[in-house]
Amino acid sequence: MKKVFHKIFSSTLALLVLFSTVSFTVEKHYCGDVLVDVSMFTSVEKCAMENMEVLLKMNCCKDEVNVVKGQDELKLSSIEDVKLAPLQFATLYVYTYLNLFKEVEKQPIPFNNYSPPNLVANIQALHQVFII
Fold first, then answer.
1. In the chain, how many H helices and how many E strands?
2. Coil, strand or helix: which one is 26?
3. 8 Å CB contact between 54 and 39
4. Residue 79 gets which letter from DSSP?
C-alpha cells in the first residue's frame, strides 16, 4: 500500500513539473467583429477579406496572439545547498534551551490510598526461606 501511494505521489509531482513548464500560443483571427478561426498548434486560416484588404487598403481583419508562458527556470538544489540563517539558528537554540528546563506536570498516583492486606502468618519464617 505504501509503494502504491509513493508511485501515485511521485507521478503527480512529475506531471505538475511538466505542466508548469509547458508554454503554448493561442492565435485568433477576426474579420471585423466576427471570430473566424482559433488555433493552438498551427497558424490560423485567413478569411477571404484578407486578400481584398491588400487591394482596397482597408484594415477590417486583425490577428490576436495570446502567449501562455510556462516557467523557464527550475531550481535544482541539493542537501549541501541548504543552510540555516544565523537568526533562525539562534531562535531554535533559545527555544530548545527554554523548553529544556520546563517543569513536568505532577502525575497523579493511582494507588496512593491503597493499604496492603493484613498478614495472617509470616510465610518466610514459616517456610524457613530467608534473603541473604
1. 4, 3
2. strand
3. no
4. G
Distance of CA 54 to CAs 33, 36, 61, 128, 129, Å?
19, 18, 11, 126, 122
Q: How far apart are the first and last CA of the chain?
A: 58
pLDDT in tens, 63-112: 888 888 877 776 776 666 666 677 788 888 888 888 887 777 888 888 88
Q: What is the DSSP letter of 112?
A: T
Nearest-CA neighbor of 68 among 21, 28, 12?
21
Q: Cβ contacts of residue 35 below 8 Å, gap of 6+?
A: 28, 29
Amino acid at site 101: F
Is the pTM here over 0.85, yes or no?
no
Q: Residue 127 carries which DSSP code?
A: H
Q: Which amino acid is at 46?
A: K
39: phi then psi, degrees, rounded to nearest 5: -145, 145
Question: How far apart are alpha carbons 59 and 53 in whole angstroms?
Answer: 6
Query: Residue 31 CA to chain centroid, in angstroms?
Result: 45
